[in-house]
Design brief:
Blueprint: H1 2-18, E1 30-33, H2 38-43, H3 50-57, E2 62-63, E3 70-78, E4 84-94, E5 97-104, H4 139-145
Antiparallel strand pairs: 1-3, 2-3, 3-4, 4-5
């Protein structure tokens, strides 16, 4: 009976300690929305058409459902081991022309979106298998190089 109690106690203790991790959980930065910078907003001028605004800013993340004359560009960066950076640009149109620009958050700060070195998922287009394909010469290049 005493051996059973020791076994059960040891099992419970190992189960509780096994749930703890000293290495921590891998976290990654989470980006959402349209990246908005001060340079992009500086290019906007009142009187620009919607197409010109799309060329500078890209497609809006949100178009107001009841007011098609308002576009919202939102960006949120939740750093894995840091804070949260939020930016918002609201553009208002009248007669398909830009009339008002409203900004929230610090647009002047640079945001580093490069993947950190070390363990974790590899971004697409960076792995060793991406270098296996070599470009094939065109038929014109083959004919020029032929003796």
């Amino acid at each position: 009976m005493q051996k059973l109690i020791k076994t059960v106690t040891l099992s419970v203790a190992l189960s509780l300690v096994g749930g703890c991790s000293y290495l921590g959980v891998y976290k990654r930065d989470l980006t959402q929305g349209n990246l908005v910078t001060q340079d992009m907003v500086a290019e906007l001028q009142p009187g620009m058409s919607r197409e010109q605004v799309k060329y500078v800013m890209g497609s809006p993340l949100l178009e107001a459902p009841f007011d098609a004359d308002q576009w919202d560009y939102l960006f949120r960066l939740d750093e894995a081991y840091g804070g949260v950076d939020q930016r918002r640009v609201t553009l208002t149109f009248a007669n398909d022309r830009l009339v008002n620009i409203t900004t929230e958050g610090d647009l002047s700060g640079d945001i580093d979106l490069t993947a950190p070195d070390g363990p974790g998922p590899t971004p697409e287009g960076v792995g060793p298998e991406d270098n296996l394909m070599t470009p094939q010469p065109s038929p014109e290049e083959i004919e020029e190089g032929a003796p």
